[in-house]
Design goal:
InterPro entries: DUF4855. This is DUF4855 domain-containing protein. Keywords: Signal. This protein is of the alpha/beta class and 369 residues long. The protein is 36% helix and 14% strand. It is built from 11 helices and 12 strands. A hairpin with a 5-residue loop joins strand 2 and strand 3.
Length: 369
Amino acid sequence: MKLYSLIICLILFVSSCGDTNDTEPVPAPPVDESDYPWEKERTALLPTKDMVLIYGGGAHRTTVWDKEHLVPYVSYTDESGKEQWLFDSFLFLEIHNGKGKMFASGYTDAPATQKDWMDLADFYFQSKIAVGALDKCIGDAIPRIGKPARKHRIVIGLPEPIQGQKDWGSLKDGKMLDFSYSIDRIAACEWYIDYVRKKFKELMPQNVELAGFYWIAEEATNTRAIVRDISAYLNELKYSFNWIPYFKSDGYNEWKGLSFNYAFLQPNYFFNESVPYDRLDEACQIAVKNEMDMEVEFDENVLVGMNEWGNRLYDYMNAFRENGIWDTKRLAYYQGNNALYKLSVSSHSTDKKLYHDFCRFVVDRPEIK
């Protein structure tokens, strides 16, 4: 224990010095299964119903996910003054760190290192922002609304170990992992899962539970050889493995064979005016055929004063109702950076109407089997 403590102290000292060597070995977190009683008590995976995507952790992000910004995602107050719970689940994720290091293929020129992965998890599990702020928002709302039917659930983005990377870092044996080999890529993911479990334990939020992990890579091209083993590791611990592939991405219809527990199809309709409404109908049909769940997509362009694309968000709501998605499928909600927050505080009547219509779309949904 003295040697381990010395190592930890040295790491903390080096980290505080500014310029650190990203390839410097970081010990794997010690895992004592008795430290995680919620896993032993869990009898099944915890599904989500309405899961909103919260991007954060990269230096390029301008939104601080404190209580002020998270309140509109936790609860909704209608025009009559009635307050009720909104999203039941929150996906915390990031695609690159804003300093040139990517957490999935294709976003920058350089893969993130073990230190970058640690920094990302450390960001999520702070007391005053992200998971900590979310926990407090829910706790503050309980006296007003009453306890939710179940604890709110969080899902944490799991970085993709970039194939061929050799400078990611090392585990307990001190040997640098080589991502030319599947076994090393899998080991890195298991290490990160264990690190997140440890961080959740340290924060110990009272109103949220760690439900699962999300595979950040949106296609199967570079990860077919490793995702089944990662899923097996997660499922043994009673965590779900979630995926949100883009429209007709490589492997989207193989999601069950790849061992994901839940897959949400992206229609990719909102972002391009040249994409016709028929895309939404087609995406719904594909999702039903392949037993997939679906994603609602919008960003700040829905606001008056931006591109005023609120009609395209209405298209999602209409198509999902018309195609039997609204009342039968789990949904994920991509909302750009903080589009829902901006809608909630907008004083423009058109924005206010869209905000209320969207929130009712969420809160009026029946339970999903």
